[in-house]
Amino acid sequence: MKPSLRILFAVAACSLLSSQINAQNVAINTTGAAPVASAILDVSSTTMGLLIPRMTTAQRVAIAAPATGLKVYDTNTNSFWYYDGAVWVEVLNGSTGWRLTGNTAAAANFIGTTNAIAFRMYANNVERMRINPTDGEIVAGATASPYAGDMLAAVSTATLPFAINGYSANNGSGTWGEVLAASTTAFSALQGVYGGGGSGAGTLGNYNGTGTSNVRAGVFGVCSTPTASAAGVGVSGFNAMASGNQRMGVLGQYNGTAYGLAVVGLGFGGGLPAGNNDIAVVGWRANNANFSGYFNGNHVIANGTKTASVGTQWGNQLLYCLESPEVWFEDIGEGQLVNGVCHIELDSIFKQVTVIDPKHQMHVFVQMEGESEDVYVEKGMTGFTVKEKNGGKSNVSFSYRIVAKRVHFQDHRYGNDPVWGGGDTRHYMQYAPPPPIDYNENVKFQEEQRANYKPTPMPAGFIYYETLQRETKQAETTRPVSSKQEYTQPSNEQKGTNGQQGQVVPDSQGIPAQAVPAQPAQETKKSAGQPN
């Protein structure tokens, strides 16, 4: 088109529009209205729009020395771009930006970064959470986990000292951890490590409910598979300290202001004792069946009597063992003289469990049960012979008691118990008043013994019961009282029009006002040196 035609066309276009040109601004419209004072160019229309330059991405980035604020439409990205003085910046819209009310997303859409910069989330202009770019680690409360290898890490703050909490008011657990079947790791599904200097524990379980089940528990362990293999432990305790002493794998206690059983083992058919009892260890199995307790070692030591409890018309009565400085087995039997002589061959089992030789001879005690001359005993290695003196030819019966040294313990006589230390230890022992035979009197006696309890003296280094009770009570078992409002399910007014829950109004500290009932304090972080 010739220049004269371009000018003619421009004049014709201007004849269709009304222009107002003032000294400092211009208006283009069809109404003849003057431009607003604050605009250098005021364009208005109800039937047409403003069309700015359109170009490809290559053409846009090829603009030489673009001015700050220069704006174009990119036909490759189908979006507006402006130059901010340093780089081109895309103007976000409903397709490229994320609306405050949410977007209808496509499968390829995402929120995040496309370079090696962390995706950070802020509230009140403070970073609250981030996803680190190198490994995808999610961190709340800090910029990184204290340890490598965490997929999700929450680091507590002074305002929020409980890093991770799970709550359930429904048919489910507050926290669930599971190592899936495909894994062969030796790590646990839930693992807690206490690395502080207080009285906390690696893992705390606290039953704080309202149920009255006999097996309600702070910690409950179950071993359910595989059924084809032997062994398996519901709860296991292991102390891994490689030096020192008094290292406990499992400690059982109860609040000393009440009665209780510190450790209980119930075998098949056993039961839990009733009544006001203070018992350190209980092993209970059905009567006349197998073992209620089993100890394998050279010595099973009791600092009191070894006692049997036997039922009578006056209740169970205590019968006490005869004790000796040496280790003896005994057998009792009977025989009869025939013409003044009787040989007794020892029981085959008794011979296998005892040692009888010139150094360790057996001892035989004979009680005649009829009139005869005096008798004497000739001992052998496998039996003994009872003979009547003075050529007697009696045919009377007798009973005998034989004792012999236990095999493998035939040289024992006394032996120091190092638990009580050296020197004179008699002051650690106390007189034990005998319990009454009558049940009611004995109950009263036991109550008086408890009411008048005084700690017994123990050697240096022993940890007293009172100390363990005090230290145990120092452990925090419940969360501090929360200042937040009681948690309630959102009402219809709190939900958005899409059925989504609306915003929860924060309290004065910017924390959402959703409190929960008091729960056990827990620490769940790996300790230094733990594998990741």
Describe the protein in words:
With 532 residues, the chain is mainly beta. The protein has 5 helices and 22 strands. Helices cover 9% and strands 20% of the residues. The strands form 7 sheets. The protein has a 4-stranded mixed beta sheet with strand order 4-5-6-7. Strands 8-9-10-11 form a 4-stranded mixed beta sheet, with no helix packed on it. Mean pLDDT is 85; it is low at 1-17 and 485-532.
Q: What about the largest sheet? A: 4 strands, mixed
Q: Which descriptor suits the 3D outline? A: rod-shaped
Structural class: mainly beta
Radius of gyration from the alpha-carbon trace, in angstroms = 45 Å
Oligomer: single chain
Span of the ends, CA to CA: 76 Å
Show the helix and strand layout:
Layout: H1 3-16, E1 18-21, E2 26-29, E3 41-43, E4 54-55, H2 57-61, E5 71-74, E6 79-83, E7 88-90, E8 119-123, E9 126-131, E10 138-140, E11 152-154, E12 260-266, E13 278-284, E14 307-310, E15 317-320, E16 328-336, E17 341-345, H3 348-352, E18 354-355, E19 363-368, E20 375-379, E21 383-388, E22 397-406, H4 439-451, H5 465-474
Parallel strand pairs: 2-3, 4-5, 10-11, 12-13
Antiparallel strand pairs: 1-2, 5-6, 6-7, 8-9, 9-10, 14-15, 16-22, 17-21, 18-22, 19-22, 20-21
